[in-house]
Specification:
Number of domains: 3
CATH class of the largest domain: Alpha Beta
Strand order of the largest sheet: 1-13-12-11-14-15
Structural class: alpha/beta
Distance between the termini: 80 Å
Strand content: 15-25%
Number of helices: 17
Radius of gyration: 25 Å
Amino acid sequence: MTIIDGADFDAYWSDRAAPSDETQVTAVVTEIIEAVRREGDGAVRRFTAKFDRCSPRTPEIPRVAAEAAWEGLRHAEPELAAALELAAAHIRNFAERQRAQITDFEYEIAPGLFTGQRVIPVERAAIYVPGGRFPLISSVLMGVIPAVTAGAGEVLLVSPPGADGFPDRRILGAACLAGVNRIFAVGGAQAVAALALGTETIPRVDVIAGPGNKYVAAAKRLLFGAVGIDLIAGPTDVLVITDEPASGAAEAAADLTAADMLAQAEHDPDARARVLVPSREAANRIAAALERRLAALPAAAGDRARPSLDAGGLMVVYDTREGAIRIANRIAPEHLELQVAEPSLWMGALENYGSLFIGSLAAEVLGDYSAGINHTLPTAGSARFTGGLSVRHFLKTPTTLRCGAGTGYDEARAAAERIARAEGLFSHAASAASRARDRG
């Protein structure tokens, strides 16, 4: 865990090294994409056999398998099933509210000049859900439900196969609950390539969304344009902002911050947990709380979290609220927690974050799972220019123009003709001139 003063932050942040294996990852993924482009299903099966535990001859999973998985989950783990149902209801409710904000309209911008927008769902969307050590059942809900709520014509789910040729049974059950149409047991860069290009058995989609490892992220980046994507995922991160706690509450506040930092660090060694603190004493309290919590974890969990904290854990001691806000906006975290006495004093100037968690009760893990907001968020500072996954990723907003008699139309037509001539595009100018209403 590194502790620095706010005055040293800019130099520290500028010196961060870029990922050393990016070129190697790009080369591997490019080879996979080109093989899928040439060979289709054959390449998908070959790479699945190489990277996963099984390579099904037919990757599509019957929907009845998902229905059976959901029924099995309800009977074997009723409390988990109930938690998933509650989370799904909240995610759907929030997505419906988002969808209601994106509407068709037509507006007479000037007399005779009618401009508008249509909102059209994509025809086919795919949600990628990783396998690996932890079945990300929450990512099924976070991806599928916004796509369904947006009105996508068909929603696919892809997830790597296990030894039996099926994705994790909890993933299948969550897919049934979320309302997915089709499921494919395939993962990795080969899954992204198959969805973007289409194969004999895997249909080409319009949008691919969902988290994945660095190979999945590279495939999405390389194939953007052939297919729409949500985000390029990097290592997950959290930034907690604290202030001086009330008298007698310092230890409890430090322990709460440590709990949330560890929740982030346990993802993987590349996860980043950071905190802005008002004093060295506060930093030392949090460091001590982290050690206590690490010691209390099961060995495997501690072995996952400690490398993350050692490699990228950071505490920055700030002098003023304005200084802390400047640092937070520079970091542009995926998750930003305000564990401060008066969050309203901070919120207006904080602009760069994926999701903001306001007050000590608003744990970031609630956003990960059950509160309704999406957990697929911008990482690696990309919160400077984008937000997280939402219904808008599955919607198109083409514009419309309708013209009629009026001074606004006459002025716009004449302006178009003049600008076209100034650019030397005389056929453009002629097209506009041919619409003059005063022509004989």
